[in-house]
Write a structure and sequence with these properties.
mainly alpha; 3 strands; 54% helix; elongated; 7 helices
């Protein structure tokens, strides 16, 4: 059987909608833009997703899944958005139709795989962080921001003890307010006897 021409490939989902007495709400052609590009580089695809989220579209019809995206991560995200708002999907080439029980089952399986992938990624992240805490990073430096030097920290503690506020202390000690807030929280948390209640 001959491969369908570009014209018939574009008409097939349209014809399906018409055959089912459906109404074509809009078309979202990203002419000349690859399906491999992200949502930010595909204005019509972005507009499609916004219309789906607003509930203005019941079924997204496309000739092939590669028109929606080429990376598994992008496709899983797209399918998740459709599923979350109850929008169906029809793909002519892959014979996917989520208005049918078999199509809905496929959608649910994709959701299970997406959840599994997220869990694996989280597990790897936690294992990597634990290993880095234990052995340090490749450069040998500890994880997180380095602590400020002891003289500056002592100056901050003294300024806070004298009753100065966080902003004034940060300005005088040439440091960020978050550093001063962290030191103040440590001081208040320990109830340091040298520091008055702030």
């Amino acid at each position: 059987m001959d491969k369908p021409s570009t014209t018939s490939a574009k008409l097939s989902p349209r014809q399906l909608v018409v055959d089912r007495d459906g109404i074509i709400a809009d078309e979202f052609p990203d002419e000349g833009i690859s399906g491999a590009k992200g949502r930010d580089k595909r204005p019509e695809f972005d507009r499609l997703l916004k219309e789906v989220v607003r509930g203005r579209i019941d079924v997204v019809a496309a000739w092939s899944v590669d028109r929606l995206g080429r990376s598994l991560q992008d496709l899983v995200g797209f399918f998740g958005e459709l599923n979350a708002v109850g929008c169906d999907l029809y793909l002519e080439k892959q014979a996917v139709d989520t208005t049918t029980p078999a199509g809905r089952a496929l959608f649910q399986m994709l959701g299970v795989f997406a959840e599994f992938e997220r869990a694996i990624i989280q597990e790897r992240i936690h294992a990597g962080l634990a290993r880095a805490r234990e052995k340090g990073t490749k450069s040998g430096k500890p994880i997180g921001r380095s602590r400020i030097d002891a003289t500056k920290e002592a100056a901050i503690r003294a300024a806070l003890a004298s009753g100065k506020g966080i902003l004034k202390t940060a300005r005088e000690c040439s440091t960020g307010t978050s550093v001063v807030q962290r030191i103040k929280a440590e001081v208040v948390g320990r109830r340091d006897p040298d520091v008055n209640e702030m």
